Amino acid sequence: MDYRELDGGREFVARLEHGGDWRAQIERFAADEGVGAAFFVGLGAVRDAEFYFYDQTEQEYYPEVFDEPLEVAACVGNVSMLDGEPFAHTHAVCSREDGTALAGHLNAGTVFAGELYVREFDAELHREHDDTTDLDLWPL
Amino acid sequence: MDYRELDGGREFVARLEHGGDWRAQIERFAADEGVGAAFFVGLGAVRDAEFYFYDQTEQEYYPEVFDEPLEVAACVGNVSMLDGEPFAHTHAVCSREDGTALAGHLNAGTVFAGELYVREFDAELHREHDDTTDLDLWPL
Amino acid sequence: MDYRELDGGREFVARLEHGGDWRAQIERFAADEGVGAAFFVGLGAVRDAEFYFYDQTEQEYYPEVFDEPLEVAACVGNVSMLDGEPFAHTHAVCSREDGTALAGHLNAGTVFAGELYVREFDAELHREHDDTTDLDLWPL
């Protein structure tokens, strides 16, 4: 695998705003603070969630929308630059009232409550188009 | 979203004790070590799990108990102060023998085995009642 | 619980190689870089996944193979030494096209794409056989 050693930057804890979008808030924070490379983990709850499932053969994203309250049992993601703007690549595992889990690439979700730990790196990571997967990945 | 930059404190790796409670052990550790702000991630297995699902309309927690052996595929949480004591807000994704996942706010679970990484911050975070959600959240 | 305070070491971000094995790549990286203690989190997608479910009564691992494309919604694990080699204890939560989640101890999985954050510690952790669980755990 390709990897890069990075120097640690700032560390943040955050409380996502009730009623706002989970991913958009992380991106606005990153833009405001000038975060160009970070990983984050988090937990909380959403009122709804839109996952994107990537069809590895068709190489297209297909949305899967759950318009119901869900716990966010685990959120793992990162921030890097895409087309000149911070992009929060966000995956999440959510759960229903009966405990069953739904998970994937979280495109959007209306926050009920959310808590994040953001580990910034003293670097800027850039996503570029990767021909093999048709995804925007890091050339490390 | 509201956020705060924090200075990093100590870092710990931990092995949860077989037969003890997953969350209570984290809180005892935090009390013993004087940890007033931290995030943690972990993995392992439990003999049983009690999740709390938060009804966003009723604003009440409802327990969902699974009295069966489960893998802990992912655990994400944090430590902060609630009513003068360290509280470990703990979410987890568990799985059954057939691989299907159960997830949510982990109130309790009897540890079979567990491994944690704890990132302390050089600060004390306090939870206070939030009227909108009826949850105890951080005023950052 | 048993725990140890560790000094932080290097920090890495990584891009897993398309077509390679998820866990084996982490172990090769750890061997190449001399990483003897670390925690990691990650996200991505795999073409297939083999989970090991540990039967807590029989104290045996049973494989559960999913030969289908899956998102990796959350991956949490650590690196420590087992029999003189770096071992990547890797748990993951995956999801199918309909959003339903599968999770557990990830023994193997063919990477479609993957991104990791690795937090090394300035230490070497060793796994040793634990009689109670019949697992290889850390004596901390």
Description:
Three copies of one chain form a homotrimer. By secondary structure, chain A is mostly beta strands. Chain A has a single domain, classed as 60s Ribosomal Protein L30, Chain: A, CATH 3.30.1330. The first copy, chain A, has one helix and nine strands; from the N terminus they run ββαβββββββ. Chain A has one helix at residues 22-33; strands spanning 2-6, 8-16, 38-55, 60-66, 70-82, 85-95, 101-121, 128-130, 135-137. In chain A, strands 2, 3, 4, 5, 6 and 7 form a six-stranded antiparallel sheet that branches. In chain A, strands 8-9 form a two-stranded antiparallel sheet. Chain A is globular, with a radius of gyration of 15 Å. The termini of chain A are close together. The interface between B and C is large, with 44 and 45 residues. β1 (2-6) of chain A pairs antiparallel with β2 of chain C, so a sheet runs across the interface. Chains A, B, C: Keywords: DNA-binding.
- Please state the overall shape of chain A, judged from the principal axes of the Cα atoms: globular
What is the helix tally of chain A? Answer: 1
Q: What's the CATH topology name of chain A? A: 60s Ribosomal Protein L30, Chain: A
Largest sheet of chain A, if any? Answer: 6 strands, antiparallel
Regions of chain A with pLDDT < 50 over 5+ consecutive residues? none
What is the SS-derived class of chain A?
Answer: mainly beta
The multimeric state of the shown protein is: homotrimer
**Could you tell me the number of beta strands of chain A?**
9
Query: What count of domains describes the coordinates of chain A?
Result: 1
User: pLDDT average of chain A, as an integer?
Assistant: 97
Integer-rounded radius of gyration of chain A: 15 Å
Beta-strand level of the residues of chain A, as a percent range? over 45%
CATH superfamily of chain A: Hypothetical protein, similar to alpha- acetolactate decarboxylase, domain 2
The second-level CATH architecture of chain A is 2-Layer Sandwich
Count interface residues per chain for the largest interface: A-B, 44 and 45 residues
**H/E series of chain A, N to C?**
EEHEEEEEEE
**End-to-end distance of chain A, in Å?**
10 Å
Organism (chains A, B, C): Halosegnis marinus
Protein name (chains A, B, C): PPC domain-containing DNA-binding protein
GO molecular function (chains A, B, C): DNA binding
Keywords (chains A, B, C): DNA-binding
